[in-house]
Design a protein that fits this description.
Structural class: mainly alpha
Radius of gyration: 22 Å
Low-confidence stretches: none
Helix content: over 70%
Number of strands: 0
């Protein structure tokens, strides 16, 4: 019964999914954040090692984009099929997603190895920071298949109603990473290369755990050999729905590239390092919002497939309310104590001084992000791929990128223009996404709910 989301309190179902999912995402984030913390405090690097890590962010975002394309694209479809009682289709979707993740991981790794040097210089590397970025990326790319299979297929564990198992997936990898990082970095004196090796080993362990569960007896839906053969029709459905998550990560990649290039022109390596810290802090404080909205998707999708439209509407409101309260508290914490968050990654005097100013600007509109997350997760959870894609493009590609390029040139804003672009996009993009969702999806669900109730009453 705990896997039947049409029963019990909608809020409890969402929290049942969201809490362990948030913990799992937090642990997942530790893969990279722990690396940044240790690397940011490497002696005699003056923050250049941390800047080098920041230069690899666009490539990490690209890997995440393809993971979302096939993982987040397949999981909601799988939930809808399971809710409708079509187990055969659900397993085919899961198998196709696994195959697509596997094939694309090798393609990404090959392309990145072939064009690694020009890519890193294009992303803002200097002669001082390239060596750090190259040392990390050369090893990190070896774990691409582990990263994509472990993370992408973990969505299917959560979509079946096993969030605790999904949480253990990332717990296993993160604990290994936390243990191995200081061992390789400081004990074996491998520096930034040691951090990359620890990450690859941890990702490999997580991937093995996920695949063992999804091929074992405890899973409701299992990966079977016959379902691994990619079907063109399912490929189109998976990519259509996953395109939203893909574009969000791909546009993150684009934004990070534009930010690095612009910051290099107006502020140099120091500000690329500062942006690395800001991105890390944003990932951390966004986790509960991501957890509650991602946790709502299988619940919304299942009830939508079961035609329980009233429960879908309750889930949307619950997600928005809880996420809004948290966003307000997180925003206050960052604005009041920016230095606390910066010291986690680096305590260099210039980093603290200029980073604190940048952080207060960058996070000014964080409270508005809940509207983007709530609207986006509803569109994805209900299979409304076109709307999800549009608002992914709107906030990042249409708003943030042009602002990042042009604001620094207005009124002598310089690097401040780069940091101001984020809150402006949160306001315009977030409100537009949420209002559209409420006026279209939410309102229509209310109209469809009434006929269902009348029909049920007539049968009774």
């Amino acid at each position: 019964m705990e896997n039947d989301f049409s029963k019990g309190s909608v809020g409890k179902n969402i929290l049942y999914q969201a809490v362990p999912l948030t913990v799992a995402q937090l642990i997942q984030l530790l893969y990279n954040v722990v690396d940044r913390i240790y690397i940011g405090h490497l002696p005699h690097s003056d923050g250049l090692a941390l800047t080098g890590i920041g230069l690899t962010f666009p490539i990490v975002a690209l890997v995440t984009a393809f993971t979302n394309l096939f993982g987040m694209g397949g999981a909601p479809l799988c939930s809808i099929a399971r809710g409708a009682g079509n187990t055969k289709r659900a397993e085919k979707i899961m198998g196709n997603s696994a195959a697509l993740l596997f094939y694309s991981s090798f393609l990404i790794m090959l392309v990145c190895y072939l064009f690694k040097k020009p890519i890193l210089y294009l992303f803002g590397a200097s002669d001082n920071t390239y060596a750090y970025a190259d040392d990390y990326l050369s090893i990190y790319l070896l774990g691409t298949v582990f990263s994509m299979l472990g993370t992408g297929m973990n969505y299917f564990i959560n979509s079946q109603g096993f969030p605790k198992v999904g949480m253990f997936t990332t717990l296993l990898g993160a604990v290994l990473n936390i243990i191995l990082d200081p061992l390789f970095i400081f004990v074996f004196h491998m520096g930034i290369r040691g951090a990359a090796i620890a990450t690859v080993i941890a990702q490999g362990a997580s991937a093995v755990w996920v695949l063992r569960f999804l091929t074992g007896r405890k899973a409701i839906l299992r990966i079977k050999r016959k379902s691994l053969r990619v079907e063109w029709k399912l490929f189109k459905e998976i990519t259509a729905l996953g395109m939203s998550g893909f574009i969000m990560s791909a546009t993150n990649c684009l934004v990070q590239i534009v930010c690095n290039i612009t910051l290099k022109s107006y502020g140099g390596d120091l500000y690329i390092g500062i942006m690395t810290i800001l991105n890390s802090v944003r990932e951390i404080i966004s986790l509960p919002v991501n957890g509650i909205t991602n946790g709502s998707q299988p619940v919304l999708g299942y009830n939508y497939g079961a035609r329980e439209y009233g429960r879908v509407r309750k889930g949307i409101l619950f997600t928005t309310l809880i996420g809004g309260i948290y966003s307000a508290l997180a925003w206050l914490a960052v604005v009041i104590s920016p230095g606390f968050f910066i010291r986690i990654f680096n305590d260099h005097e210039d980093m603290l001084l200029y980073g604190s100013q940048a952080m207060q600007l960058y996070f000014f509109g964080f409270i508005m992000m809940i509207f983007q997350f709530a609207g986006q997760s509803t569109f994805v959870g209900l299979g409304k791929s076109k709307m999800a894609i549009f608002f992914s493009i709107l906030r990042k590609a249409i708003i943030v990128v042009p602002l990042t390029i042009f604001l620094p040139r207005i009124g002598g804003l310089g690097v401040n223009g780069v940091f101001i672009a984020e809150p402006i996009s949160n306001l315009i993009g977030g409100v537009s996404c949420f209002v559209t969702m409420m006026l279209t999806v939410y309102r229509r669900l209310g109209k469809e709910e009434q006929p269902c109730k009348v029909k049920e009453g007539g049968r009774n």
